[in-house]
Amino acid sequence: MNKARTPRPIERNIAMELVRVTEAAALAAARYMGMGDKDLVDQAAVDAMRTILNHIRMDGVVVIGEGEKDQAPMLYIGESVGDGAGLQVDVAVDPVDGTRLLSRGLPGAISAVALSARGTINCPRQFVYMNKIVVGREARSVIDINASVADNLNNIARAKKRKIPEITVVVLDRPRHEQLLADIREAGARVKLISDGDVAASIQAALPDSGVDVLMGIGGTPEGVLSAAAIRCIGGEIQGKAWPRDEQERRAAASTGIDVDRVYTAADLVKGNDMFFAATGVSSGELLQGVRYYTGGARTQSLAMRSLSGTVRWIESIHDFKRLHKLRFLD
Questions:
Q1: Which terminus of the chain has a lower count of CB atoms within 10 Å, N or C?
Q2: Are 118 and 61 in contact (CB under 8 A)?
Q3: How far apart are CA 246 and CA 252, in angstroms?
Q4: Element (H, E) at 248
Q5: What is the dihedral angle through the alpha carbons of 279, 29, 301, 34, rounded to the nearest 10 degrees?
């Protein structure tokens, strides 16, 4: 019987090249902050992100993108990106996680991209939403998405050597979370509600000393996979389960062989040991500063991570528009 091959480490550190990708998307989208047009924000980010991706020496395939080809003219699932040479990789993108935030002029929008060896990013697209729990390194071995909220919070508090009232849980502010919020409050933990942007919130939950200890609740499946890539780099854990919106979606998933009761871990969603993640702030939030314009340029703040080394870099960049515009592919 043939054993499954373990993906080989990627030969070069591509993290900084991915930062250029998210910086370009952030700079393009941030110009439309607060203008009330989500589509304009998204299109600007997609155009810029795709341009830079196609100048990277790699043979990439988009596995998480803007949707299927007939709905998304660029960065659609299955699209080839890169110059076609070198690394054979899966690419997951979210040109703006928090388009609604940015279009309304609210904080917390980021641009994100993840990359791993070909065939290692697993996005169970048969269901749109996933129930998730995310923690950092200290509590990664004590969570169980099938356990009660109280049990998980007790275990997390014990692992972090704290009392439950000292634990902060971040939750998307949605009507579907009414019972979850009641359970968290009954257990005695603190609640931090967010309107959008659970990729950034998941990263915060996994990072040490971020002010967030755990993310709980239902959010997008693609966002869960992107979060898993970052979490593999940081050393925390995510557990996720399908959350069918109705019985029809449950039956449709089951008909394709999907076990809706399966628990996905970070290693299930992003396999192998060598993956990269980058994110740049678009509108300033707790995780990252947004794009800050000054006369003739702008400043950005980004994160770059690699799972093989466990290195997490915080990058402050200054962009001189006069010089950048001389580079034809950045126009």
A1: N
A2: yes
A3: 10
A4: helix 247-255
A5: -120
Per-residue CA distances from 184 to 13, 170, 200, 206, 240 (Å): 41, 10, 21, 19, 18
Phi and psi of 88, rounded to 5°? -100, 110
Find out whether 209 and 219 touch, Cβ atoms under 8 Å.
no
3-state secondary structure of 130: strand
Q: Between β-strands 237-242 and 129-135, what pairing exists: parallel, antiparallel or unpaired?
A: antiparallel
Residue with tokens 């466990």: 310
Which residues face 217 on adjacent strands?
Answer: 132
Distance CA 283, CA 255 (A): 41
- The low-confidence residues of the chain, meaning pLDDT below 70, are 1-12, 69-72, 325-331
What is the C-alpha separation between 277 and 229, in angstroms, rounded?
6
- pLDDT score recorded for residue 272: 84
Cite the beta strand spans of the chain per DSSP E: 58-64, 80-81, 87-97, 110-117, 129-135, 168-172, 190-194, 214-220, 237-242, 264-265, 275-281, 292-294, 297-306, 311-320
Q: Rg of the Cα trace of the chain?
A: 19
pLDDT for the residue 329: 44
Is 270 in a helix, a strand, or coil? strand
The pLDDT value given to residue 254: 79
For the chain, how far is it from start to end, CA to CA, in angstroms?
53
Contact 232, 270 (CB under 8 A): yes
Give CA–CA dist 192/99, Å, rounded: 20
| 93-142: pLDDT as tens digits | 999 999 999 999 999 999 999 999 999 999 887 888 999 999 999 999 99
Take residue 75 and report the two structure tokens written for it.
């960065």
Contact between 36 and 300 (Cβ < 8 Å): no
How far is it, in rounded angstroms, from Cα 98 to Cα 34? 12
